[in-house]
Amino acid sequence: MTGAPLCIELVAVDLAQAGGEFASAAERARAAGMAAEAGERWLRVRSAVRRELGRWLGEEPGRVEITVALGGKPGVRGGEFSLSHSGGHLVLAWAAVPVGVDLETRVPAEPERLAVRFFSAADAAVVGAADAAARGEVFRRQWVAKEAALKVRGGGLAGQLERAVCRWCGDEVVGVECAGESYGTQAFRLADGTPGAVAWGVAGPATVRWRA
Ligand SMILES: CC(C)(COP(=O)(O)OP(=O)(O)OC[C@H]1O[C@@H](n2cnc3c(N)ncnc32)[C@H](O)[C@@H]1OP(=O)(O)O)[C@@H](O)C(=O)NCCC(=O)NCCS
C-alpha cells in the first residue's frame, strides 16, 4: 500500500513590494530594538509570513500564532512550513509533513575555501572540480540543498552542515544524507536566477508547485 503523494507548495514574495501591516505588537517592539533598516526589513518579512500562512490556514494574518521551537524552527498549528529570506526575496514552503526551504542571493567570493570548511570532503571535491567560473554556482546549489534539509528537522543546526552529504543525479542535487537521516530535495530558481531548494524527510518523490 502506498501513502498519498507528498505535495509541497511554495510561494515567493518580493520584499520590495511587501508592507509591515500584519506584524504583531510584539514583532513591532522587537523591530524597534533593531537598526532602522534591519527592523523595517524584518517587519516586512514577518508581515508577509503572516499573510501567506493566513492564506494557507484560512485565518486572519494578524491572528496566526507562530511558535519557535528550540533551535529556531518556526511552526504553526494546522500545517508544516519553512521559510528563507535573502536579499529582496522571501520564500515559504508549506506541506502536511515537515519541510525545509532555503535560498541564497549571495555568490561566494571563495567557494572552494568555503566548501572545504563547511562541506564533506566528497562534496567539496565537486566544487573544486568545477570550472573556475562555475564554482560559485556549484557551491550555492549544494549550500541551499543542505540548509533546506537541515531545516526539515530543525533543532540545533550548528555543526550539522559539515555532516550533510549531497545525493546527486547528474549535476542536480536530489537529496541530502545527514546524521543517519535521508532527505529528498528539489532545486528551484527565482525569476532573477536566485537559486533555492526545498527539502522533505519522507521517502519518495514530492510534487512541488508554486502558488500565485
Ligand atoms: C539558522 C539558519 C538555518 C538560517 O539560515 P539563513 O540562510 O541564515 O537564513 P534563512 O533566511 O534561509 O533562514 C532563516 C529562517 O530559518 C528559520 N530557522 C531558524 N532556525 C531554524 C531551525 N533550526 N530549523 C528550521 N528553521 C529555522 C527561521 O524562520 C529563520 O527566519 P527568521 O529568523 O526571520 O525567523 C542557518 O544560519 C544555520 O544555522 N545553518 C546551520 C548550518 C551551519 O552550520 N551554517 C554555518 C553558517 S556560518
CATH topology (fold) name: Ribosomal Protein L22, Chain A
* Count of structural domains: 1
| H/E series | EHHEEEEEHHHEEEEE
Mean pLDDT, all residues? 95
Structural class: alpha+beta
Helix content: 25-40%
Molecules bound to protein: coenzyme A
Strand content: 25-35%
- Uncertain stretches of 5 or more adjacent residues: none
Distance between the termini: 33 Å
Number of helical runs? 5
Instruction: State Rg.
Output: 17 Å
Describe the biggest sheet?
5 strands, antiparallel
The count of strands amounts to 11
Overall geometric form: globular
- CATH architecture term: Alpha-Beta Complex
Strand order of the largest sheet: 6-10-9-8-7
**What is the CATH top level name?**
Alpha Beta
Q: Can you say what the CATH homologous superfamily is?
A: 4'-phosphopantetheinyl transferase domain
Overview of this protein structure:
The chain has 212 residues and is α+β, with helices and mostly antiparallel strands. The chain has one domain: Ribosomal Protein L22, Chain A. It has 5 helices and 11 strands. A 5-stranded antiparallel β-sheet has the order 6-10-9-8-7, covered by helices on one side. The longest helix is centred in the N-terminal third of the chain and has 22 residues. It is globular and about 50 Å long. The chain starts with 5 loop residues before the first strand and ends with a strand. Bound molecules: coenzyme A. Coenzyme A binds next to strand 4 and helix 5.
